[in-house]
Amino acid sequence: MPNIRVELLAGRSVEQRRQFAEQVTRSAVEALGARQQDVRILFEEITADHVANGGTLASEDASRASVVSKLATS
């Protein structure tokens, strides 16, 4: 049983998570020979102030401002 854990910034829609889950499940079935019903995907949403890239919080990273603000308003 493949267990796939996905961490992502909070704000993705249910439809986005559904589409991601469908595509990843198909890939797991094809690549691993798993049964579709046995592929488990866990989404963990984190806020932009709980993750840092290169020593800078995502919430304070000017290069990520457009992505972070878009997710915050979703």
Reconstruct the topology from this structure:
Layout: E1 3-9, H1 14-32, E2 40-46, E3 52-53, E4 56-57, H2 65-72
Parallel strand pairs: 1-2
Antiparallel strand pairs: 3-4
Can you tell me about this structure?
The protein is α+β, with helices and mostly antiparallel strands. The protein has one domain: Macrophage Migration Inhibitory Factor (2-Layer Sandwich). The protein has 2 helices and 4 strands. The strands form 2 sheets. The chain has a two-stranded parallel ribbon. It has a two-stranded antiparallel sheet with strand order 3-4. Strand 3 and strand 4 form a beta hairpin. The relative contact order is 0.24.
Q: Portion of residues in helices?
A: 25-40%
Reported CATH architecture: 2-Layer Sandwich
Strand ordering within the main sheet: 1-2
Query: How many helices?
Result: 2
How much of the sequence lies in strands comes to 15-25%
Order of helices and strands: EHEEEH
